[in-house]
Design a protein that fits this description.
Number of domains of chain A: 2
Order of helices and strands of chain B: HHHEEHHHHHHHHHHHH
Number of domains of chain B: 2
Number of strands of chain B: 2
Structural class of chain A: mainly alpha
Largest sheet of chain B: 2 strands, antiparallel
Structural class of chain B: mainly alpha
Radius of gyration of chain B: 23 Å
Helix content of chain B: over 70%
Largest sheet of chain A: none
CATH superfamily of the largest domain in chain A: MetI-like
Oligomer: heterodimer
Order of helices and strands of chain A: HHHHHHHHHHHHH
Distance between the termini of chain A: 20 Å
CATH architecture of the largest domain in chain B: Orthogonal Bundle
Number of helices of chain B: 15
CATH superfamily of the largest domain in chain B: MetI-like
CATH class of the largest domain in chain A: Mainly Alpha
Radius of gyration of chain A: 26 Å
């Protein structure tokens, strides 16, 4: 819907189609103009950055490049076994952390829906905490000489710090998973709670009146209505965890490392020739996450790429909110 | 046996007292990592088996010396976060209006495109941007960092505002215009008050993302721009735990202030729901 007056169709049938599409284009121009700054900045920075990165990765430009095409950066990156181990680890961490956070957030959102405002607010308080602060807190809480270990020792549950399970910088990356669940559950819950409050309670009541038990009501009514929210929230979290650097760098295992850490190390290497390897690795990281996201959207809603256009207000669920 | 457990769980979930206890437990788990930070920031040589440290204010007084670069980091972080939030609002508000209220060909593709920076790893892009910024002489400058911080902030603001605009009735504006209000008056007195919750939530997210950002600043700042997260990152790799804890707590403060003032807007389901509609 636009505020622009669209001229009424002329009688001449030959020109009517042309005129109608011209009028439509004029009507759309308001929307495109409003989007132009955002598209220009995001396109220039993100798209331009990707193109420049690609040119550097194949040797067409760069600090050490002689300007000739070369795929050696990719050969070096893909030929290394470390790359595949890192990819494995990054995928494992992103999928596990997203799955745990999603399930816990759905449960917490359902719980908070009936609770008072204080509870929602208390759960939001961890939302604005920087990841680095969370990392510091978790290190001081869960390390072998951390607060939890001290508490268990003074309670007589463990004999020394040797008995405390290794939870940070451990081979299984438990510390990384704990951090992401701790940090992302409040974020996802906030989103899911908003979507949940937008769902009409009448649907649930009707299902109950028709004989569904609460469990059926959850599976058949609430969950399908919540699905768009779950998909979006988990998508944001997955993308973030997959590309996150600080958390696995400071809380994760020393070997293997995640892909973003490999990029960081190649980028900060004193050998400047490693720059193109860093860029090649980064591009593959972006490419893999794009493919995974497309796959996820496709699986998640079947026709994920057609739906946003078909919805007039682009928010059928949110349309119910007020 | 399974039924018994299920019944027990269901009964306890229905019990309001049990619900409150469960929520209290969750909230305290969420708060647990802050406890050692708080203690450490006032502790002096808190060696392993000790439960209670020797209290001191030394970490906090060290914080204010220039050698820690906390003051410099704080100011730079604040300037960058405020500038990028303002710019992102300026760009994201009209974009949100177009996506929320209007229909046009390619809308789905444009929306997905604008969201790419927050769901695709920015590492490769960053190294390309870095190349561009060096040519422009913006590498290692505050302006360069502000520009790069627009990448994650614009998508959030656009998303939140498109959802708010989807529930916005343009008839109010038409009415004001027909009563003789200028375009600016309509925006100032009709549109802005109606979308205010969305603007606050979007600005909150943008501010926090910029304030917490480490990697983008690290790559583009070239070591010359030194924000608070970079101070904290450096401290975390050093040995002074007490000082690190004090820096960590300092970097929470502005976010908490901001959250406190916008807690009412965070209850706006339409604004937050925008993030649930990627």
């Amino acid at each position: 819907m636009t505020l622009m007056p669209v001229p009424s169709p002329k009688i001449n049938p030959k020109t009517s189609i042309v005129q109608a599409s011209w009028a439509a284009a004029k009507g759309y121009s308001g929307a495109y103009l409003r989007l132009l700054p955002a598209i220009a900045i995001v396109g220039g920075l993100f798209g331009g950055g990707l193109v420049l990165a690609f040119c550097q990765s194949i040797g067409l430009m760069g600090i050490t490049s002689d300007g000739s095409l070369s795929l050696s950066a990719y050969q070096q990156a893909l030929g290394d076994r470390v790359f595949w181990q890192s990819l494995n680890l990054s995928l494992y961490l992103a999928i596990t952390a997203t799955a745990f956070s999603t399930v816990l957030s759905i449960a917490l959102a359902l719980l908070l829906q009936r609770a008072g405002r204080w509870a929602s607010f208390a759960c939001q308080l961890t939302l604005p905490i920087p990841h680095l602060v969370g990392i510091a807190g978790i290190l001081l809480l869960l390390s072998p000489s951390g607060l939890l270990s001290r508490l268990l020792l003074s309670a007589g549950l463990i004999a020394s710090d040797q008995d405390f399970p290794l939870l940070v910088n451990d081979r299984a990356n438990l510390g990384v998973l704990i951090h992401f669940v701790w940090k992302e559950v409040p974020f996802m819950t906030l989103i899911l709670l908003a979507v949940l409050r937008g769902i009409r309670p009448e649907f649930g009541m009707q299902a109950r009146a028709l004989g569904a038990n609460p469990w059926q009501c959850f599976w058949q009514v609430t969950l399908p209505l919540l699905r768009p929210g779950i998909i979006s929230a988990s998508l944001i979290v997955f993308g973030f965890v997959f590309g996150s650097f600080e958390v696995p760098f400071l809380l994760g295992s020393t070997a293997p490392k995640t892909l973003p850490i490999l990029v960081y190390q190649a980028f900060t290497d004193t050998d400047l020739a490693q720059r193109s390897v860093a860029i090649a690795l980064g591009l593959m990281l972006s490419f893999i996450s794009m493919v995974l996201i497309a796959l996820y959207l496709w699986i998640g809603s079947g026709k994920a790429f057609r739906r946003p256009m078909a919805q007039p207000a682009s928010s059928s669920v949110l349309g119910e909110v007020q | 046996m399974r039924n018994l457990v299920r019944d027990l769980v269901r009964k306890s979930l229905k019990d309001p007292v049990a619900q409150k206890m469960l929520l209290l437990l969750i909230v305290s788990v969420l708060f647990l990592p802050f406890l050692p930070l708080l203690i450490w920031s006032f502790a002096q040589g808190w060696y392993f088996p000790q439960l209670i440290p020797q209290w001191t204010l030394q970490n906090w007084s060290t914080l204010f010396t220039t050698s820690t670069r906390v003051g410099q980091g704080f100011v730079q972080s604040l300037v960058i976060a405020v500038c990028s939030t303002g710019l992102a609002l300026l760009v994201g508000m009209p974009a949100g209006r177009a996506l929320g209220m209007m229909d046009f060909p390619g809308k789905g593709a444009i929306k997905l495109f604008l969201l790419l920076p927050i769901i695709v790893s920015p590492l490769a892009t960053l190294m390309g941007i870095q190349f561009m910024l060096i040519r422009l002489g913006l590498s290692g400058t505050l302006l360069g960092v502000v520009l790069v911080h627009l990448l994650p902030t614009i998508p959030y603001i656009t998303l939140v505002l498109s959802s708010v605009y989807a529930n916005f009735d343009a008839d109010y504006e038409i009415q004001a215009r027909s009563l003789g209000a200028s375009a600016w008056q309509v925006f100032r007195h009709i549109t802005l008050p109606l979308i205010a919750p969305g603007v606050v939530v979007g600005a909150l997210f943008a501010f926090l993302i910029s304030w917490n950002e480490f990697l983008l600043t690290f790559f583009v700042g070239s070591g010359r721009v030194f924000t608070l997260p970079m101070v904290l990152f450096t401290a975390l790799q050093g040995g002074n735990t007490g000082l690190t804890a004090a820096i960590a707590i300092t970097s929470i403060l502005p976010a908490l202030v901001f959250l406190f003032f916008s807690s009412r807007a965070l209850d706006d389901n339409a604004a937050i729901g925008g993030l649930g509609n990627v």
